[in-house]
Amino acid sequence: MHEDVADATALAVNRVLDEFLATLAEDVSKRAFKRLLFGKQTLGDVDLGYKPETYTRFNLVEPLLTAIDLEYQLEPRSTDINRDRWPDIKLTSSAIPYIGEVKALNDIDSGREEIKEYLGIDGFIAPYGVLTDGAEWVIFGPPDDGGRTSNPVVRKRCSLADALKTVALVEGHWEEDLLSSEIRATGIDQIEAFPRMFHANELDAWALEKMPPTYRAEFLSEHESLQASLDGVWE
Predict the structure, then answer these.
(1) One-character DSSP codes across 137-170
(2) What is the pLDDT of residues 100-138, one digit of tens each?
(3) Could you tell me if residue 39 is left (phi over 0), alpha (psi between -120 and 50 degrees) or otherwise beta?
(4) Angstrom distances, CA of residue 105 to CA of 2, 39, 66, 110
(5) Is 114 left (phi over 0), alpha (psi -120 to 50) or beta?
(6) What angle in degrees, to the nearest 10, is found between the helix axes of 181-198 and 3-27?
(7) Ramachandran assignment for 160, one of left (phi > 0), alpha (psi -120 to 50 degrees), beta (any other)
(8) What is the pLDDT of residues 33-61, one digit of tens each?
C-alpha cells in the first residue's frame, strides 16, 4: 500500500471514529460512554431503541469499510439452502472472498461460534471470515495444516480499542485526560495499522500466503477465475 494512500486512508479512519464517538455521546449517558470505551460494558447493556448489532454495523463497521475502500454485500445468501441465520457481510472487492459477522460493541466473543458455523456453509466459497464488534477485528480461517473441512481458527487480529479512546480525547468527546501516553501511542498506531491490514490487496496477499498449501491448490483449481484477479498481489 503506497504511503500517501495509507496516510489518507488513516485520516479517513480517524474521521469515522470521530463521527461514531459524536453519535455515541449523543445516544448514551456520559457514564455509559466512558464504560463502553473502556470495555466495562457492552452496547447491548444500553437502551438504544434498536438492536445494538445494527447500531454498531451502521455507525461504525460499515463506515470503516467504506473509509478503507472495501466494497461489501449485506446479508449474503447461498442459493438452494434454507437457513434461519446468515452472515452479516461479504467482502466483494478482495479477489479471495471473506464473509463477516458483526456483534455489538464489546461483545465480540458472542460471535465466535457463529463465524465458524458460517464458514462451513455449503455454497459459500469464502475460506476466511471476519468477526468484529467495531473495536476488535479478528480473521478466522483454516489452520496451517487444514483444508476445507477443518475447524476455523483465529489467524489474524487487529484492534481499534485504544484508537477510539485516543480520538475521544483528542477530539474533545470527554473533558478529563483519562489516558496514559502508552494508550495514546498505541491508539495512533492502530489507526495507521487498520487500513494496511484490511486493504483489499493486503487481504489477498496475506490469504494466499497463509492458506494451507493443499487447500490453496484445491481452492484455486475450483475457482480458476480468481487467478487472474490475484495477479499482482505479490508485487
Answers:
(1) EEEEE--TT--TTSPPEEEEEEE-HHHHHHHHHH
(2) 999 999 999 999 999 998 887 766 677 899 999 999 999
(3) left
(4) 31, 9, 19, 11
(5) alpha
(6) 120
(7) alpha
(8) 999 999 999 999 998 888 999 999 999 99
Which strand (E) or helix (H) includes residue 12? helix 3-27
C-alpha cell at 124: 459459500
Q: Return the closest-CA partner of residue 233 out of 196, 205, 200.
A: 205
- Block residue for cell numbers 480520538: 167
- Cell numbers linked to 234: 505479490
- Burial of 86-100, coded b for 16+ CB within 10 Å and e otherwise, reads bbbbbbeebbbbbbb
What grid cell was written down for 143?
A: 489452520
Grid cell listed for 134: 467495531
What is the C-alpha separation between 159 and 205, in angstroms, rounded?
Answer: 20
CB 116 within 8 Å of CB 148: no
